[in-house]
Design brief:
Order of helices and strands: HHHHHHHHHHHEEHHHHH
Oligomer: single chain
Radius of gyration: 27 Å
Number of helices: 16
Largest sheet: 2 strands, antiparallel
Shape: elongated
Strand content: under 5%
């Protein structure tokens, strides 16, 4: 069965474009950049000792010091005059918190034992003590008593809100129930599952990954004009839309997989060095700002990957349309940078956009925040976000088709 002439021409042009671009040095550079971004903390872990356990211990000790100082100040007041009922209650709460922290610190001190078995058991015991304190803070927060010391876990921002208390209780409850040891965000020797999650959530902005895609798109769609071969492309018998479509296909087939390959290489290196880790390690989040939900590493990586690749396709469509009006790489990158700036919380969180924000592509470029539903503005589900990005990309493709139909020149 023969393809229609237009489809045959498109297939030929796609084959030509792929053959021309697959050995491009730019592809190798993009891969190296992706791998470097993902592996940066892996390489630093090879040259230094892991301090995460001691940092966690110090976080508990620091919180306990704050509590003891506050209790000491109240006791000094009691030496001078009789405490009011409110002050006595406050002192009682401070002493209760101190007892919780003392239990945590005593259990956590055993983590520095030289034997692996006792270290794991000590950590599991410590986590039970942490869970008891987190439950206490949840009860106190629900009762409106907010003078609490929140443990500033290294690498994470402390959250004293009611939702923050719910999330912490859910996280430690899951660890205790499933006898899993907490992997601190700052742990340099984290196994592969935790390493990938920590990098993508806390150490690497998704906008930085998208910026790499943006540079590659800008180079690809301004390539002929920068080389001065655009007149040759315009004289080809193939339709101009077919040429643009072939270039888009090259981007999708050659550039998008580079992030996946870099991710696989990163995962393999970390797994070989520090192990895989648990596939049931919890990532707690709130899908609606009130209730708590749990996802696991495979689910997180799937959602993150799908969303960031959809974002890369959206940037490709923007770059393709821009290239029809300007062959300047600087202009193309400037437009792409402006598009990515619209993803900043200062923009997506604007009250005037709240009604339309869930349907704007910029709302879904802060990928890690979207996956955990912590965006500044309202969003739909992650799956719907992928649809929004692809729908806008398709709309820009239609605009490109209309522009080329009217002038038949790239």
């Amino acid at each position: 069965m023969r393809l229609p002439h237009s489809l045959a021409g498109l297939a030929t042009q796609i084959g030509f474009d792929l053959k021309k671009n697959w050995r491009s040095t730019t592809n190798l550079v993009v891969f190296v950049v992706f791998a470097a971004l993902l592996l940066i903390t892996f390489f630093t872990a090879q040259s230094g000792s892991d301090l995460s356990a001691r940092q966690t211990y110090q976080a508990y000790a620091s919180a306990d010091n704050i509590i003891q100082n506050q209790a000491f100040a109240l006791q000094k007041t009691a030496d001078r005059r009789k405490l009011t009922a409110a002050e006595r209650q406050r002192l009682s709460r401070k002493m209760a918190q101190h007892e919780y922290f003392k239990t945590i610190i005593l259990a956590d001190a055993a983590v520095f034992s030289p034997t692996l078995t006792s270290m794991r058991e000590a950590k599991l015991t410590s986590q039970k003590a942490v869970l008891a304190y987190q439950r206490y803070t949840l009860r106190e927060t629900r009762a409106g008593r907010l003078d609490l010391a929140i443990i500033a876990v290294p690498g994470k921002q402390p959250d004293a809100s009611l939702l923050g208390r719910k999330l912490d209780v859910a996280f430690y409850q899951y660890l205790v129930d499933h006898k899993l040891v907490e992997i601190p965000v700052t742990r340099q020797t984290a196994p592969a599952n935790n390493y990938m999650i920590n990098v993508l959530l806390y150490r690497l902005s998704p906008l930085l990954l998208l910026a790499v895609f943006a540079v590659q798109a800008g180079l690809l769609f301004t390539n002929e004009k920068r080389r001065g071969t655009i007149s040759f492309m315009n004289n080809l018998p193939t339709g101009k839309l077919a040429i643009l479509t072939a270039r888009m296909t090259s981007y999708v087939l050659l550039t998008l997989p580079l992030l996946l390959i870099a991710g696989a290489v990163t995962y393999g290196l970390v797994a070989q060095r520090f192990g895989i880790g648990s596939w049931r390690y919890p990532i707690v989040f709130s899908p609606d700002g009130q209730h708590v939900a749990t996802m696991f590493p495979a689910q997180f990586l799937l959602l993150y990957t799908g969303l960031i690749l959809a974002g890369a396709i959206w940037l490709m469509a923007v770059s393709a349309l821009t290239s029809l009006f300007s062959g300047s790489l600087g202009v193309n990158l400037g437009v792409l940078a402006a598009v990515m700036l619209t993803a900043l919380p200062q923009v997506t969180g604007l009250s005037v956009l709240r009604g339309v924000a869930p349907f704007l592509p910029s709302s879904y470029l802060q990928v890690s925040s979207v996956v955990l539903h912590t965006t500044a503005g309202p969003i739909l589900s992650v799956g719907a976000g992928v649809v929004v990005l692809l729908a806008w990309s398709a709309a820009l493709y239609v605009v490109c088709a209309v522009v080329l139909h009217r002038r038949e020149r790239l």
